[in-house]
Amino acid sequence: MLYYAAVFFVIAVIAGVLGFGGIAGASAGIAQILFFVFLVFLVLSLIAGVLRRG
């Protein structure tokens, strides 16, 4: 999932450089959402690992 967030971030940067503001904004928004979903899954995974070991 972090890979997809990075891909959308790169698309947003390229679109921003080329002047496509709408596409850049949408891609940046998608990248941000995917990044936060990744963080939530990471925290849940770490908590599950600690509970399993405990």
Automatic annotation (TrEMBL):
It holds the Pfam family DUF1328. This is UPF0391 membrane protein V6L76_06275. The keyword Repeat does not apply. InterPro entries: DUF1328. The chain crosses the membrane at residues 7-24, 30-51. Belongs to the UPF0391 family. Keywords: Cell membrane, Membrane, Transmembrane, Transmembrane helix. The keyword Transmembrane applies.
